[in-house]
Amino acid sequence: MAKVKDDKKKKAKSKDKAAKKDKGTKPAGKAPLKVSPLAPASFPDMPVIDGVRFAAGEAGVRYLNRTDVMLAEIAAGAAIAGVFTRSATRSAAVLDGQAKLAALPGKSKKGFAIVVNSGNANTFTGARGASDVALISEAAAAALKIPAAHVFTSSTGVIGEPLPADKITTILPVLADGLDAGKAAVAARAIMTTDTFPKGAVATLEIEGKPVKIAGFAKGSGMIAPDMATMLGYIFTDAAVTPGALQAMLQAATNRSFNAVTVDSDTSTSDTVLLAATGKAGNTPIASGRSAEGRAFAKALGAVMRDLALQIVRDGEGATKLVEVQVTGAKSARDADRVARAIANSPLVKTAIAGQDPNWGRIVMAVGKSGAAADRDLLTIRFGDLVVAEKGWRSESYSEAECAAYMKGQELLIGVDLGLGRGTATVWTCDLTHAYIDINADYRS
Amino acid sequence: MAKVKDDKKKKAKSKDKAAKKDKGTKPAGKAPLKVSPLAPASFPDMPVIDGVRFAAGEAGVRYLNRTDVMLAEIAAGAAIAGVFTRSATRSAAVLDGQAKLAALPGKSKKGFAIVVNSGNANTFTGARGASDVALISEAAAAALKIPAAHVFTSSTGVIGEPLPADKITTILPVLADGLDAGKAAVAARAIMTTDTFPKGAVATLEIEGKPVKIAGFAKGSGMIAPDMATMLGYIFTDAAVTPGALQAMLQAATNRSFNAVTVDSDTSTSDTVLLAATGKAGNTPIASGRSAEGRAFAKALGAVMRDLALQIVRDGEGATKLVEVQVTGAKSARDADRVARAIANSPLVKTAIAGQDPNWGRIVMAVGKSGAAADRDLLTIRFGDLVVAEKGWRSESYSEAECAAYMKGQELLIGVDLGLGRGTATVWTCDLTHAYIDINADYRS
């Protein structure tokens, strides 16, 4: 049997002071962004995953005085799985990663590498974008003595600017020399753009009596309405999992984690999540998410991915509130998802939350515009445990004072029951504040 | 033959000073909103439409010291047409109006009335909402000696609060006594909520040598992503038009006017546009939009409705820029519409415009997330006449300085050609600024 532990909660000790001081999240010449008030207490202690090593360095792609390239090396024998944005204008690195993943048997006797740069998305950069990805892949392959087809790259940052690939290829041999199994936290920091804190999550479980670890990190705080995966996420485990089972479990968990969060309804061109399983834990390879071991692993993987996804919402650009939208009683799961997203993406709902206004009328509006089947007289709306509307009318127990007090909280629940069927959905979002506009009205200039 | 003249442009004289001083647009106790910098130079001279009279008064529904109820009386023999929101949580007045319109032959020997209140949307107010509509309809019917089934009502303002219908029924006999064919401008002002200026538009044409007039007014500035019609619009003509042709022409023009604007992607529960044709111009009744007369009338009607729709965007909450998104070369009209709306509703595009940043990478992102067929290497993006991106790459002629200068304009054009087919769409929107958040973070409190 397998047990899931959330190491993060257990090991959290103190506010990550380094995150608070980090000036590296700003484009050169700008004032640093304040750490989100919703940031977790600390970055988790990232355990060593046997078979994975990290390094990060300062290449100066766009930012000054901060790390902006990370290299991860995954030992021979590992399986790898990936999910990518479904954007029609996806980046050169995403197109390359999808092609490489499709061509691989999924498990390599030669090992893999992941190279990520921040500051430039290498998106809408034509044929040069693709050749820059090839240059970076070849440089990493040469440094690690693996095939270039086993190197996955991601680029995140401004769209439409040529990537200074030479800055990255120059630093890769130095990073290869400095690879270290204990440097996951350093790697997590190098992939940040407008993030105000690095995002990591950890779980441990036992399979066949053997301890198994899962550790991952992610970035993202704007252009967040992932469609298949979020901005960037990298998850590592020492479990032995077959490539097919790994890919299936990654896809299923993505839908309930990265695909269930939205900051601003804008879907990135670079969304990528990669999951590598080194097999060093020594368990019999998990061949299906439906076996007892597979279910236990999928549950722990899901917890790590949901944790990372929620950290992205907690770092939503300008966010001051973390909001869970729970929809029940819809005619179908699809309808529930539509309603949840209509609420979570509504600028009027999000500004009301920013203003701590229990403006449930805007939730009625969002339900109405969602396109899902809805009946006014069967609809129930809750803020936390407070029923605000039911039976087509403001609830008899409605108290403006109670609701206003509830809205002052930092973590809010909006519950909507449609009273029509068994479809449910949960989506997480944040509020829409002045800081979102400050960050985005002059990001590029 | 028929000629279309745009009276508004011809007769515009001076800034409407009354609008600038209007404190009535504010909920009680709030500072007045500044008039939008995109407001037209003046409210047009509204011509008398033979067979239509207006009145407005102060009922104190929610606002103090301003008119908040308007009454329009339409003479016996008129035809009437209407389009309404498709929201699943539409208001009591919309449900009532849809039922009445469906039950009418469309043309009445008894005439019609329209009653509109601002300050309260009478939405999500259960059975009481419907009975309040009935009370108001009956009061207007009694005052004007017409059947209650011929009275159309609209309510706009806060959602979920009971409507103080008695305040409206009390004032209706007074308004009936004060009806005046010259009071359209007064009526236009009474229906405003967060609008910073009243919105009117006029066209004249000749049919069979007879002068025909079309005059309309509208309100709306937030919760604007109309789906069938916008917030509220009322259009009057003295043309003779059969009910079927009137409804068909209204629906067609709605798709290219009110349904083609978006302020914040949020669809109102109260959207209603009514069009009344009194027939007093004496022309042979227009029985089809396809005849020469029908085409001329439809063109003039379309011009009035587009003018009103654009005024709503010009008064978009917090707007400082009016943006036309023109999509061409899509695989289908539906795909073109998807791309145009994805751009027009993207918070990242809208904040970049607010910041006067020619951030075309975000347009690439919005095209990618729209769900429409797109090929990076065939995509062309323009700001006005400046080609910024083509052939999967930043344009060779791209000049950051030129684009930045263009973005400082108050009226902007974003052109996207997908290079795939013949589908086109045009959508109008505005930028997303701090003022939108100021207005909406505490609208209700």
Automatic annotation (TrEMBL), chains A, B:
InterPro entries: Arg_biosynth_ArgJ (IPR002813), ArgJ-like_dom_sf (IPR016117), ArgJ_beta_C (IPR042195). GO terms for biological process: L-arginine biosynthetic process; ornithine biosynthetic process. It holds the Pfam family ArgJ. Its EC number is 2.3.1.35, 2.3.1.1. Residues 1-25 have a biased composition (Basic and acidic residues). The record marks A229, T230 as: Cleavage. It is found in: Cytoplasm. The active site is at T230 (nucleophile). Its main location: cytoplasm. Keywords: Acyltransferase, Amino-acid biosynthesis, Arginine biosynthesis, Autocatalytic cleavage, Cytoplasm, Multifunctional enzyme, Transferase. Heterotetramer of two alpha and two beta chains. NCBIfam families: ArgJ (TIGR00120), PRK05388.1 (NF003802). This is Arginine biosynthesis bifunctional protein ArgJ. It comes from Roseicyclus mahoneyensis. The lineage of its organism: Bacteria, Pseudomonadati, Pseudomonadota, Alphaproteobacteria, Rhodobacterales. The gene is argJ.
